[in-house]
Amino acid sequence: MAERSLPLTIEHPIAPQIEWSAGMGYRRIKAATILGSLWLGVAALHLISWGYIIAWAIASLFCWRALRLVATRVAPPPLFVPPQTYPFISLAIAAKNEAAVIANVVANLCSLDYPADRYEVWAIDDRSTDRTPEILDKLAIEYPQLQVLHRTDSDTGGKSGALNQVLTLMQGEIIGVFDADARVAPDFLHQVLAYFQNETVGAIQMRKAITNSDTNWLTGGQRAEMALDAYLQQQRTHSGGIGELRGNGQFVRQTALADCNGWNEETITDDLDLTIRLHLTGWDIALMPYPPVGEEGVTTVKSLWHQRNRWAEGGFQRYLDYWEPIASNRMGTKKTIDLLSFLSIQYLLPPAGIPDFLMAFWLKHPPLLLPMTASLGVALPLWGIWVGLQRTYRQAATPAIEGDRRPVSWVTLFKQTAIGSLFILHWLIVMPLAIARMAILPKRLKWVKTLRQDDLSQA
Question: Does domain 89-219+242-313 have CATH number 3.90.550.10?
Answer without folding.
Answer: yes
